[in-house]
Fold these 4 entries.
Entry 1:
Amino acid sequence: MISISRILAIFFKELAQLRRDRMTFGMVIMIPLIQLILFGYAINTNIRDIPVAVVDQSQTALSSILVDMVEATTVVTVTEHLQSPEEAIEAIKAARVRAAFILPPDLSKRVATSPAVGLGYPSSTDQENSRPVAQWIVDASDTMIASGILSLRNMPLSELNRQPPNRTTATFEVALFYNPEQRTAVNIVPGLVGIILTMTMIMFTSAAIVRESERGNMEMLINTPVKPIELMIGKIIPYIFIGLLQTVIILGLGHILFSVPFGSKSVDLFIGTLLFIGASLSLGLVLSTIAKSQLQATQMTVFVLLPSILLSGFMFPYEGMPVIAQYIAEAFPATHFMRMIRGFVLRDAGLIELYRDVLWMCGFFVLGMIVAALRFKKRLD
Amino acid sequence: MNTVSPEIAIEAKGLVKKFKDFRAVDGLDLTIERGMIYGFLGPNGCGKTTAIRMLTGLLTPTEGSVEVLGMSVPKDAEALKYKIGYMTQTFSLYGDLTVLENLNFMSTIYGITGKEQSDRIKEVMKRYDLADLKDRFSGRMSGGQRQRLALAAAVLHQPELLFLDEPTSAVDPESRRLFWEQLFDLVSDGTSIIVTTHFMDEAERCHKLAILEAGQKRADGTPKELMASMGANVVEIEGPNLREIRRKLDGKENIMAAAQIGARLRVLVHDDVADAEAYLKAAPETDGATLIEQVRPNLEDVFVTATGKGRQ
């Protein structure tokens, strides 16, 4: 029979040790706090103010108006004026700018015939007339920077002609649900709950069992009637509370600083988070039964942590990954939780709608606990 | 299953533990009666700790059978854990918990709760002089205090059999003396105790002991029996040139060992020689000695004759 009082004894023991371990205790609070502020402000996938160089070979009033118009889009900021395209390429190579805007000597002529300006010329198939007015050279190694500049490709120039912009009808109407203002923080903050929990939960528990061996307590412990499953459960309970506390910090502060909604599904959110905490903790425990020292436990944690974060869909959309990577991603609890928490707080989805992720998480937790308890031997050989 | 008589605490037959090719314990037979302190005496690495770990079920024997308190080990090891206490070689309670927290934890683990728990803890704290230390972190206590705490934690659940693995290696002589008094108290309350040691004076306090070397039992019995049957007589020599005498005696026929102890040379003479004192007096190697007399053997002599070069 599993003894509740033994589980509680281990829980209170862990709690007392945790309370006295100021470093760990500090990390519990500081990791979510600092990372939230850091990521919330720093991560932005809407590119603004890309530094660019201008090579103005026409030197006319028109060219400077054109540069002003480009800058007015706020996509780019002109940081340098250079003489030749060669200099511009050097500047890109040296990473002083990410792109260069080349205005050719015959700019005025090109503008006059460009359909983008809309001076009333019939659109022409004539090579001479259909030339673009100017050129961008872009450091396209970063795809997000490149697509930022690419968005300028079809910029209307009708303002040059003191005409209002073309009121063309869009081919498609696009309704942006759940994050109409396209604020990155709305997507990042709930995802951050998954990242922080993955990190702290696996990190703390992966050291939990091996620490007892390292400090010499294990030989005493395995001489008592304590059962492996009691030890496992007693050890993870304190971290469940820690995980919930961290979730409250991130979502609460995310709401205050970045106006990220809570969503209306607080019960579903609570249960889903509990499940994820459980799954992460059981993964940490399994690592802890494999590791021979706390150092090894930390190394294994990093080994699991990186793919679990990068494949989770936190920063790079899951849909963009090749199928094989998607299968690997599915194995990690973080991927499922990322889907779940964004569903709860952004889309008001519930556990029912997300039942696949819920079931998977339950399975992972139970399997992890069983494996950890089976792997834990009350023997020294 | 219960083939052993109730007076027997431990019965081990042909116990072997191999680590790869190394035989840490090599064919150990033990019969240990209840109600006494039984010592394992041997140098470091002789297999004492390995033997104890097999007896408590922490290690699975490669060969042989063990019955502890009538239970077969390691098969019934979990049930046995309620009946035995174990004090590890190094302090293994939690250094970042207080004395009281450690005792609370250990008693709950053994299923002692409620009033019984507080009574037991109060009792062991009184008995082992821990009441004033109850809020001290055990990691910040002295070796003697920690040892008292470890003993208190090991007897909280009133085990029938207590295993102590080199219990006094980290404490001062005064604490050691006190510790042994406490062990005898436990024995008079009906506890059986197995203790390992490499101290002769400690071994001498055991009711019975086994001398271990290289994983094998070299001799066993009460200290008195061991001294009587060690197959040597002890002669002490005084004189100005003891180092020289020692060098000359070394390797001489019938001389099992010679070692200087203070101002005297202690010589073990094989008991094939009827009168050891006369034998040495007549020997040319002892020229210059001012005194040659036969003395009472002690346990160290037993140890020397039973192990290493002295063994024949």
Entry 2:
Amino acid sequence: MQPEQQGIDVAVLVSIGRHPTTGRPRRAEQDARGLELALAMEAELPGTRISMLHAGPQDDGSEAALRGYLGMGLESMTLLEQPEGSDAIPALATHLATAAPQLVITGARAERGEGSGLLPYALAERLGWPLVNGLAAVESVENGVVTLLQALPRGQRRRLKVRLPAIISVDEAAPAARQSAFGPARRATFSMAATHPEADSELAQWHLAPARKRPKRLKIVKSASARDRFKAAASKSEGKGGQVLTDVSPEEGAEAIYKLLKEEDVLR
Amino acid sequence: MLDTLLPILIFTALTLAAIGAVRRIRLWRQGRPSPVNLLKGLAAVPRRYLVDLHHVVGRDKMISNTHVATAGGFVAAAVLMILVHGLGLANPVLGGLLLLASTSMFIGSLFVARRRINPPARLSKGPWMRLPKSLMAFSLGVFLITLPTVGLLPEGLLEGSGSWLLALILAGVLAWGLGEMFFGMTWGGPMKHAFAGALHLAFHRRAERFGGGRSTGLKALNLENEAAPLGVEKPADFTWNQLLGFDACVQCGRCEAVCPAFAAGQPLNPKKLIQDMVVGMAGGSDAAYAGSPYPGKPVGEHAGSPHGPIVALEGKALVDADTLWSCTTCRACVEECPMMIEHVDAIVDMRRHLTLERGKTPNKGAEVLDNLIATDNPGGFDPGSRLNWAADLELPLMADLKQVDVLLWLGDGAFDMRNQRTLRALIKVLKAAEVDFAVLGNEERDSGDVARRLGDEATFQSLAKRNIATLSQYQFLQIVTCDPHSFHVLGNEYGELGGHYKVRHHSTFIAELFEAGRLSFAPWRGGSVTYHDPCYLGRYNGEFEAPRNVLKALGIEVKEMERSGFRSRCCGGGGGAPITDIPGKQRIPDMRMNDVQETGAELVAVGCPQCTAMLEGVVDANAEVRDIAELVADALVERPAADTSGTAHRPAATTTAEEVIV
């Protein structure tokens, strides 16, 4: 098995993060975990080449945040320069289509801007590559097939074999990012790549407001013993009364979803 | 026959010593440049040796007298011997002096020998065990060959048939002595400490330490110059006079005896660390080291070279990273070192490389540094909540007043519920004394102490520069703080970055207020009290008296711990040690609370948020831990004709503090 292991080209997409308390720019938590995953691959699969990409404007604040990623041990990164408020997806898709990496790693959701978590899906759609979300580990690469470990709720893991090229997105299930060191961060260089910026017209029409905490659904615990109350408080509620639909037609699936939304009072 | 043999022996030894000296100097010069004044430094050696160094050595009277007799005798004997026997100035006066000098040295060496019978664990063995014999060989040899010079020996003894044998034996003994004393001095024998030590005194990188001065602030890294190394990766990255300092080590192990990390069984021994640096500078393995090892790390497994890494990326090199991270930067070793070696500087230099270049700050280090970068405090708290604990106190803000007498620096203890009680007590005292003070409030940031000691010079300088910019907007006569770490950094380390302030510890300030008659106290009714000197207040800033004066003013008679004052044992909370948390056999604060227990005190007074946290964290302690400010606040009585704001009711402050906290 070992000899067939081979290094591949990995592109890591990073965004400018935002500290939850102070709002200062920083390396985004999930994107940094994505880079950590790539760096771990580089250590285990000799010959792996990492390229790091960011699409956005170049200014002091974003440079400091991007150097936060570089301090994890990269010598350079590519900056797809475009003005604030531009759509990152076309720029990234165009660049990735030309650079043709075999694996693209990205965080699941940005910490500023839209933060919709749609970027990996939109990219996968544009490039026509498979997407795996919630990644926990990259296990091996053999003959153009990557073996991945996907994180499922409650600590479960699912092993997947995916044909390259592919996009994977990471969230908090991936290993924590290593410390960023000042020296390498300061020495690293940026290479600029020109883009044809497209203003994100939809975003421009939106009204943005600070997020509010969503109301939490109350858990009504009917239990006599302390053990039950503790279990209810400590554990994630297990989906009850759900059903797994397999081999159903799209109409049947849509019908089931519609019914559930009605039941939950989401649709009235 | 001896007349021809002696000059040959002496000058051979001197020549070899000279060659060795050149080789040794070349080893030191592998280090980075550090400008010194050669002539001024050399001229200062006698004073620095006789006054400053002997001030340290003199703490142990026995060894101090031994050293005076031995070293003084040796220097005089060596010079006279070269004159009398090397150059043939067989003057009876010179000869008489030579006899005296060698006698003094011989007596001294007897005491050296006595110390080597059952030597304490801190002393290195190996070649050091033969040193008293070599000293005796030299002094005895010189004494005997000088006897004929002054005509004290029957003329016939060295003639006749037995004389050849006698002369040969005498020459042999002398050759041994000369070998150790001259050849060994520059070729790495135990006597190396005399050669390197004298030059280290001349070219010390903290010349301010001599003549009663104090120099404890870490030296800033040049971050503007991108070519300058960020800390020390390999032995050659030290400055040349740091390397010289390492070489001066006499392996007396006083540092080892006072090191809290060593006592706690953490893998650090300051003496071994310095010896490892010597090994690295010359290249080789530590197998020849004959002292106590790092706890839990056998000798002989580490090796290094001048241009090889000190800490290996993987596996072992000269020193393991956990050794460097065990240090609490308490400076006890530096305070004790008779050779004036700067252990803490070296450790922080190496930490800088690990943090700034490798991003390898252990355990919670990375998280704390990230918090400092993102939120300006190590706990990651909202910087806008720095004054939440004082919501009911209506603290005057610098931003409103612009000009006050006293700027009260809160420190990061403002986020810590325990320290908030201290702060509230201190504010009660300041208000009672009607001090014109204000706080920066949310404009204050962490002083950068922890970042700097974790090796993150970049974050330190960023915090320091922003704090200096904030402080420059306001006018104040002095800064008062209850955090000795902030005190040290603001007072001793901001200067290099352009911030010069008069900083006072709250105990100093309270002592002044009391002396000025602005505070009056109810008589002390509690039990017996001992006082724990915080390292950053005592050893770093020389403030031993003020806290004791305050306690005295309160009517407390301090039951001193065995290790107090400049020999105070660290609480374990400095240098980011609680963050890097290197495991040992026991905890440093537990040992300190045992010290407290030995005095039988029911209460230990402290003056530092770190010490409070560390000592209060001891399980099953017999003594209560209270900050001096709290003791003062509790004892406050309203002065006659003072205002009637109601601050004098004793329990008021503590209960409100708890209400706010809960």
Entry 3:
Amino acid sequence: MAKRIVVDPIPRIEGHLRIEAVLDENNTIQDAFSSGTMWRGLELILKGRDPRDAWAFTQRICGVCTTVHALASIRCVEDAIGVDIPTNARIIRNLMNATQQTQDHLIHFYHLHALDWVDVVSALSADPKATSELAQAVSPSWPKSSVGYFKDLKTRLTTFVESGQLGIFSNAYWGHKGYLLPPEANLMAVAHYLEALDFQKEIVKIHAIFGGKNPHPNYLVGGMACSIDPDSDMAINIEQLNKVKQIIDDTNRFIDQVYIPDLIAIAGFYKGWLHGGGLGNFMSYGDFPESDVDDFSSLLWPRGAILNKDLSTIHDVDPRDMNQVKEEVTHSWYSYAGGDGAGLHPWEGETTPKPDAVPKMPYKHLDTEGKYSWLKTPRWNNNPMEVGPLARVLVAYAKKVPMIVDTVNYVLKTLDVGPEALFSTLGRTAARGIECKQTAGFMTHYYDQLVANVKAGDTQVFNNEKWDPDRWPSDCKGFGYTEAPRGALGHWIHIKEGKIEDYQIVVPSTWNASPRDGNGKSGAYEAALKGTPMADPEQPLEVLRTIHSFDPCLACASHILDMNGNEITSVKIS
Amino acid sequence: MEQKINVLGLGNLILGDEAFGVEAVRYLEANNDFPANVNIIDGGTQGVYLLDYIESADCLLIFDAIIPQEYDFKVYVYQKEDLPAFIHRKMSSHQIGLSELLSIAKLHGKVPKEVALIGIPPISMKMNVGLTKEVQQLVPKAVDKGKEIIMQWLEK
């Protein structure tokens, strides 16, 4: 008998998110606290390095969003040293960014989030014939919908579940009364879950073509590292462009025929569960520039902020303004030389950890009166903001971007709900699907732009004008932004004598998962959980649903407390 | 048809010895004369995004930092019955571990015929670029063990 060896988990990148929720006697969440329990400090690694290499380090911050950190990084360096990139480079970056976002949303919906709405065990009692009829009604053009297909899946799934090694389906609350789908809808959703995981592998092959390899495609300050030559075997040629086109078409088809119909079908059962709205403040830096990255009027996802759910007023956002985006550390395990409550713009940012303030393990609960998170506390004009798909979709909707208005109205009309339904967990989940459809459309758009450009004889992808650090200002600052799948991402750099003097990153999950600020205002996760009734505190499905709807880029350990501070349950959110 | 051998290095490049898997495949990449059906992949911490490299493999070799139950500082090789049925290994911010990936592959009916894991226990996982001297010294040995396994697969 071989000795059984256990390989323990090793903590990863963003560390862990801990949620503490306080319940009243009716098991409704009264208050919630969000804490990042692992320190990062990438800023300190970058100091003194060559700014042209920064992207290769920043893309390793996150396990899944390599492209967005690389993009924000090269954009901030280009901004600092003052170099314009060729049109093809802009188009290829946009195409790669759209590819990342589309794939990420698809994975998020099916793999991370669907099981908060779909009961896998219930699927085992589905009737394959009724499931086939349902699937054909929901997705009439999708071929995988025969009785035999669902019968076979049900058999495979039953064997899998009966083996007792649930793997992907472990750590869930099967049978929870918060699950509202009939068995047939559950079986259909599980089928699409597996199809989506199979299909998504294709999408990212676009990164390998334009980035030279995948995972971790290559980026380059001043352009892109690939070369384009329609007739060469050694460059991006017609054959590869045709392959890209095929992937884009398949992606759009999958989203239109599977993802969006699933989203609407599932949402139809849950439209009475409109909890999780939260702050009502939303911010987007915008992305997908149609001309220079500084020409904000050309962004396909517009820039702006919404306060208090008021869609009639879009506030201007300027991340370079020293007074707008600031991070404070009143409730964060850091200290600032000038006082923890004084917000600092990232160009003036300080990263001085205060590990002595962190409670020693094991601790029962956080000292939420004092410091309680490794995440800093970013605020825009002193307001906590939600970032991500819902923020982008609302800003675009409020700005009346035609395609977004059409898709949002179609979804609302099909579900027979008003725009106020968007301010919810379900609204956040729907916004991600709406955005995914839009972004897949961008892929086609950028492909067409690229092909037209190449046909016109333009194959330039790199501008070497400022490659040599001798041509840089001796002291310069830059800002680079992107809208990552999870929301507004900013990189701020200070370069001195050709080396990185300071580097500050404010990631989307820091906006959303931030602790309270000095004014006592909650962050987005904290606010979203308040007021949510829980069917069974031992099985906090509702908490998972809302936290997952933000697509947290952290591993979460959620601790539910009763009003006396006794721990009822502890649950991993993954 | 020629079998496809995927060699996957896992780990975070900016967390000290956590980067062992990535550094090992980089070393292997620079020191091998394997044929084209051996694919060497820097998988980073990409989690579910690595599914293709698992499902497309006939034989899968993984390099990774591990915490074994009995902690000796050495190169660990897990193969066949030594390989835990479910390796509770977290690979990404989405917490998709090898166990989850293999279970998805199982549901897809695409589990590699052979799976092997080569690991070392990390000494430091502080945010830092570069392995500790001790772990660095084990890289060539770990890669040699990997090469032996790949050679066995190639001869089949």
Entry 4:
Amino acid sequence: MKMAIQGIGLTAGFGSGIEALRSALQSGRAASVTGNGEQSAFRADVSGLAEFIPKRALRRIDHFSKMTLLGACLALKDADLLDADRSRTGVVIASGYGALKTTFNFLDSYLDFGYSCSSPTHFSNSVHNAAAAHVSIQLKTTAPSLTVTQFEMSVPSALLSAQQWLAEGRVDQVLFGAVDESCDVLTYCREQFFGSGEQGPLQPLTFAEQSAVAGEGAVFFVLNRETDTAPYGFIDGVRMGNYLVRPTILPEGDQLIVGADGHKECGRWYQQLLKGRKVAAYSPLYGSFPAAVGFDLAVAAVSQCDGKLYASPAANGSPAALPTQKLGGEQLSCLKLGPGGDYGLIRLST
Amino acid sequence: MSVKEKLKQVLIEDLNLEDVEPNEIEDDMALFGDGLGLDSLDAVELVVIVQKHFGVEIKDMEEGRPAFQTISTLAQYIEERMA
């Protein structure tokens, strides 16, 4: 069953809202790069949330959930549904890491002061489903809510659930989000594993080199069953599997947006599966994190809407990169590969 | 810094009362309900805050209930047990 994309809301290092994404695609780099290097460019600013939710209601809500709420509110605003009844709106959120910063803060307080001084608020926010709960409470979405975590495959896996809910008629609409956050502990760990590669610049199409830089952000889509109008087109289908176990055939005529994000370990799988095929990759705009597949999907939807495939940022003349081009009748697909041959393929159409 | 002043400061910081300044919290303002507007989850956080910042353990919520009325009653409770 096709899903119609009625609205998109997002926040990441390049800014918040669909126009910020368009600007980033046009300029080819994140808008908020500062003197602190690449990593600071990939932090999401959540100050825009004040437009939608009273400050006092946010005091127990952490950065992860604030990004989530901002993405959700912006998507509803984009779909002109901020004032709509949401009693039949489900919430599905994909996250590879969950609320990292709060989880580490909670663990720190436990280690430093013992269980009796561990903050209950930190604990409640550290569970993966906390963000979906905050969305449901603040936005009064009273249909089912779900958080799916399957590391790199979280987004396609969660999309399958959203599709199923719509097909079964359990909901009329799904607020579908992909969220991950970065934090100092993650940066430290990544530097231990990846060394200087973590300093950027992120070059996703240089598959054999480690260049990933941790990013963060939230992206949301308002999805419903196929209708006549869908401003950003449709999600035709979602396919998942492991191509080492069962070889997969990539759609021949599609333009591919790949979720390559500078991880050498995954890069070699892209190299093997793509066999020299030209593709697009946009991770230099938002950084490297499992839920970034959601941003690839947003880029694909915006490209469909604009009738144009944007050039891959930081491609540096890579022979693997598709050039900027007008989209004719061809479809767009987002391909994400995880370590070990896992894949997720999301196919769109106008 | 007095216990009252420190209490006001840590309440604002640890409970994320971003829209409140320490001088806006009066010593005899009710902490819960109409006063500062704290709720039952804050009460649990308050137990943690008192132990973490003042080393005073509130083992029994019934015992803590009278102390949780205002900044003055809480400061008095802490001072009596710190002494």
